[in-house]
Design goal:
single chain, 229 residues, alpha+beta, Glutaredoxin, 7-stranded mixed β-sheet, two-stranded antiparallel sheet, 6 helices
């Protein structure tokens, strides 16, 4: 708990540092050691996936649950807009959505839920201990806060579960580079310009091989030329 508190305070402090509002593509993003790590989990793809499977791509990780009616869909919509802005460069980016409610969020329901935003998004679920381990790797705080009945359109039951829960959870979005290191933290309200700049900065780093790097650079040059015109 102490480590999680320190982490949250560090994120807040980062937002107050000079230059945080500048384009992330103009500066080197720090490496946040001790936050993140390799994991495996069942996915909305119908099979188990690992973080290392996405080596070579920039990864954005968000936590939440499908019965959430405000922050989680807003976060997914924000990431949907980010990928649209990235255009062709989005092919080198992967969004992962880790549920904090694995008892209700099956792989099939995650697939249906995420398809409403972008079919490329991948949801992660499994046994409670498996998703808890991922949350612990990223120092995520969450609590089952209210024992109340919620609409459960994406739960295992057809209409309402006998008892569904409201979760309070940290809302940060984790930005990982192409070798899986945590490099930045975003929130639903983070300007898309800032997020786009950070993603493009990581895509320009020499980690994925010349084909991906050339494609990204060509797209950035084409975009900047079009803006100049």
């Amino acid at each position: 708990m102490k480590a999680k508190t320190i982490f949250l305070l560090s994120v807040f402090a980062m937002l107050l540092l000079p230059g945080i509002g500048q384009s992330s593509s103009e500066k080197t993003l720090p490496i946040h050691d001790g936050i993140g790590g390799e994991f495996r989990a069942q996915s909305s793809l119908g099979r188990e996936v690992s973080l290392s499977e996405y080596r070579g791509k920039v990864v954005l990780i968000a936590f939440g649950y499908t019965s959430c009616q405000d922050i989680c869909p807003a976060t997914m919509a924000h990431l949907q807009l980010l990928l649209k802005r990235l255009d062709a460069a989005a092919d080198a980016v992967q969004v992962l959505f880790v549920t904090v409610d694995p008892e209700n969020d099956t792989a099939a329901h995650l697939e249906e839920y995420l398809a409403r935003f972008d079919s490329r998004f991948v949801g992660l679920t499994g046994q409670r201990e498996e998703t808890d381990r991922i949350a612990e790797l990223f120092l995520l705080n969450y609590d089952r806060s209210h024992d109340i009945q919620l609409t459960t359109e994406y739960n295992r039951s057809k209409a309402f579960a006998k008892r569904s829960y409201l979760y309070a959870h940290s809302q940060q979005i984790y930005l990982l580079d192409r070798v899986g290191r945590t490099r930045a933290f975003f929130f639903t309200g983070t300007p898309l310009d800032e997020m786009e700049g950070a993603v493009l900065a990581l895509l320009k780093e020499p980690a994925a091989g010349p084909d991906v790097e050339t494609a990204v650079v060509e797209w950035v040059v084409e975009r900047d030329s079009a803006s100049a015109d």
